[in-house]
Amino acid sequence: MERVPILKIGDILLVSIQVDMSDQTAIQLQEDLAERIVATGCHGVIIDITALDIVDSFVGRMLSTIASISKVLDAETVVVGMRPAVAITLVELGLSLNGIRTALNVERGMELIAASRADDGDVALGDDEDTETTATP
User: Fold this and answer.
1) Which residues pair with 119 in a beta bridge?
2) Most CB atoms within 10 A, among 86, 101, 114, 129?
3) Domain map (residue ranges) of the chain
4) What is the pLDDT along the chain (137 residues), one digit of tens a residue?
5) 6-110 CATH fold
6) Other beta carbons less than 10 A from residue 2's beta carbon
7) pTM (two decimals)
8) Of the candidates 49, 25, 38, which has an alpha carbon nearest to the alpha carbon of residue 97?
């Protein structure tokens, strides 16, 4: 069985799908990715599907499931490298890919995750400052 490599780049895990996704490969990827998120504490997952010419409903559901698993483990998922034909197919199949953000390439995907983490940090920082100000007499 083929395994999809998962690379760690800073606070992000990069998954580059270069093989046809059989059911077993997809299930193994979900398990491997969940384990790596927990082991590394990464807060972002980028799934590069540039090499996929065709996406069927199974692959669409698999991407959605990976995003859901990642979200539960406190990691945001961004799918990058989607070809126009793949986007059209996903829309025609009625797959909305809930919880998944998309970007044209890996660089933009990394920027999206960084911006999202920065926004989360600003909100948390702002809440803490307000709490300290109101708590101090």
Assistant:
1) none
2) 86
3) 6-110
4) 688 999 999 999 999 998 888 888 889 999 999 999 999 999 999 999 999 888 888 888 888 899 999 999 999 999 999 999 888 888 888 887 776 899 999 999 999 999 988 877 654 444 444 434 334 44
5) Transcription Regulator spoIIAA (3.30.750)
6) 12
7) 0.82
8) 49
